[in-house]
Amino acid sequence: MSSPNEQRLWVHKHTRREFRERMQAGEVKACIIPVAATEQHLEHLAMEHDWRSVCHVSQLIADKLAPQVVIAPAMNIGISEHHMRHIGTLTALPGGWLSVLFDTIRSMHSAGFRNILVLNGHGGNVAPCNGMWGQFLQRFECNVQFHSYWDFLSKEIAERHLKTKRFPGHAQEFETAFALAAFPENVRHEAMLDQADKEPLEATAETGRILIDAIVDAVSKHLEDMIDGRNVIAIPPFHP
Ligand SMILES: [Zn+2]
Predict the structure, then answer these.
(1) Distance 64 CA to ligand 1 centre (A)
(2) CATH tag for 6-151+212-227 (out of 3.30.420.10, 1.20.1560.10, 3.40.50.10310, 3.40.50.1220)
(3) CA 107, 108, 111, 112 torsion: positive or negative?
(4) What's the 171 CA to ligand 1 centre distance in angstroms?
(5) Per the confidence metrics, is the pTM higher than 0.90?
(6) What is the pLDDT of the chain when averaged over all its residues?
(7) How far is the centre of ligand 1, averaged over its atoms, from the C-alpha of 226 (Å)?
(8) What tens digit of pLDDT does each residue of 40-90 get?
(9) Phi, psi of 186 (to 5 degrees)
């Protein structure tokens, strides 16, 4: 998607002067770091899906909360060992991947951010992040949170709109509906008809639009609460 504000939404689209001046003015209060993957999404969906979808919601959220939020460059290779039987997938080992994420957070922390939302678009990244998060918090001692964007979709809304009632799933109704609504060129209709898995056929752009709106509203609220100090993550206690 493109927004008239796009240049002000992404860290890397600023010059260093523009970025410095906005930080000094105190108008930018939180940072989103999108993390995703590039991996097979069945026969019908482009392999960029996880990256493209998390960037799409990040941009809508930052736009909604402008000028308070900027988005760091996304990590578009994820932890995808379980998809490597399908060539074209890229994967990283958890240790190296977590190091790059740690340094990305550290860079944004050095820039002055104390409210940082790592917004995830790929299931394989969840377990490694959950396993390390306490230690990340003890290093940074600030409000740095990790969430997958689909965690913000209530079961009630998802079940009301998804015919299969299953989410997030992998390249199934939810992700296919998201793509039909946000970047329909990524969905190959002929392949959807001839592949063995028929669940993606239940997806509609209309469902995708409803679910994206619900997610963007909920994440924006969460981030606003982080900025206003109503939502601060607890740092695990240090050993006395
Ligand atoms: Zn996916």
Answers:
(1) 24
(2) 3.40.50.10310
(3) negative
(4) 6
(5) yes
(6) 97
(7) 27
(8) 999 999 999 999 999 999 999 999 999 999 999 999 999 999 999 999 999
(9) -85, -5
